[in-house]
């Protein structure tokens, strides 16, 4: 251990004592730039057994936990790489042996007096030294995430510039090039986080309800001892992020090459990364597994079960009974679309896909139901924020997909619009067959709601 520390100290290049590079300096393969507080290092590395060289950022105490890579798609074939900062404030990665530029940063502005710094958050930034606002960066690596979501990093959109910050998996543990999996923000309707494989949605961590992402299903008002999640939505930006409660704690969320997001926390006592949470916990996470107007729940054998929402029947009973659920369910009784429709309340739910939803912060639940009943294509509503007794309104139109039922204690209330006769008969038995793995809603908490005039 002591040797390692000594070695780390010896490797600090004279050029970068304060974690900075100026246009007259460079970082060579074998040298590292240490962040201002010492937590992170930037340098050249080869992942696993690969011989290729990459410029990356890792933890000072855990050099194989790489959090960011510059030249993901353009590996260096030898160790003659050089990182320089141009007079205009652009970081360039050169291969000295062939005198070619392999990677460069980008900025829409030119700096008078540029300096590049590795901050103690793990963010590599380029700044104008004369700039008085410390957060006004010409360029920052946090705007171009790789597979790791670090505290203070934003996953989502700068709506002013159109910058989309998303996570993308590595191709493999030995190839940091972008793999097939992405975690990104969809801001159509109520913004939601999606896990994608190429253009296909695999799972939906989903929208934010003031306490947690609806797909995570649990969260408490009590501060989490390690991290605090945040979801910011205003006219300038929409993003998901998190911060750490302790300055001396380290946590990272990694989208691995198999498409699983894992949150690691550094445990000093053990000097190792622990894995407290894995998203994509069960097969009901699989996007729209049950098709429209049905809900997924996990039975005792940890297998998914689909059930039509009350007042809905399988679109194709034959397929449904064989376990082909993707066609989902259809309404048994058409909506009256005037007086008489009402809502059935489901508790403990993951809200449906919000990409075609409408939302408003200041509409109460009562007004929300009224708005829904006033529009023939509205199919469901819910509170936007579930803290402090609930506030705001989300409305869904047409198909409802990717609804999930959480075990007791999780999820939130969802109001599904049905015709009056369905509310009256909502206690009648549903089509179901346990022998074929088709569940009924016997165990779900639902209550009838008054029709609103
Ligand atoms: C790594 O960073 C941590 C946090 O800043 C610091 O306490 C520790 O001394 C550093 N270790 C090394 C080897 O520099
Ligand atoms: C780049 O390559 C040239 C020619 O081989 C060599 O003289 C020079 O020292 C190299 N520069 C660095 C910074 O290694
Ligand atoms: C650099 O930024 C400009 C606009 O700021 C953009 O048009 C251009 O495509 C970017 N280039 C790269 C390589 O990202
Ligand atoms: C930046 O500040 C330095 C020292 O304060 C000054 O000499 C220099 O002219 C300034 N550069 C620009 C572009 O304002
Ligand atoms: C119902 O809502 C949809 C979606 O917001 C909208 O396009 C449509 O115009 C609304 N219809 C009425 C009658 O308000």
- Averaged pLDDT: 87
CA distance, first residue to last residue = 73 Å
Nearest-angstrom radius of gyration? 26 Å
Cofactors, ions, other ligands:
2-acetamido-2-deoxy-beta-D-glucopyranose
Q: Which strand-content bin applies to the residues?
A: 35-45%
How is the quaternary structure best described? single chain
The tally of structural domains comes to 3
Helix content range of the residues, please? under 10%
| Number of helical regions | 4
Biggest sheet features? 9 strands, mixed
Stretches where pLDDT falls below 50 for ≥5 residues?
1-17, 427-448
Q: Based on DSSP secondary structure assignment, what is the total number of beta strands?
A: 35
> Which structural class do the helices and strands define?
mainly beta
Q: What would you call the shape?
A: elongated
Pfam family, one: PAN_2
Organism: Malus baccata
Domain Apple: 337-419
GO biological process, one term: recognition of pollen
Folded structure, characterized:
- Keywords: Disulfide bond, Glycoprotein, Phosphoprotein, Receptor, Signal.
- This is Bulb-type lectin domain-containing protein.
- Involved in sporophytic self-incompatibility system (the inability of flowering plants to achieve self-fertilization).
- By secondary structure, the chain is mostly beta strands.
- It has three domains: 1-140, Orthogonal Prism (Agglutinin, subunit A); 145-281, no CATH class; 283-451, no CATH class.
- It is 6% helix and 40% strand.
- It has four helices and 35 strands.
- The strands form eight sheets. Strands 25, 26, 29, 30, 31, 32, 33, 34 and 35 form a nine-stranded mixed beta sheet that branches.
- It is elongated.
- Mean pLDDT is 87; it is low at 1-17 and 427-448.
- The structure holds 2-acetamido-2-deoxy-beta-D-glucopyranose (5 copies).
- One 2-acetamido-2-deoxy-beta-D-glucopyranose binds at residues 5, 8, 37-39, 60-61.
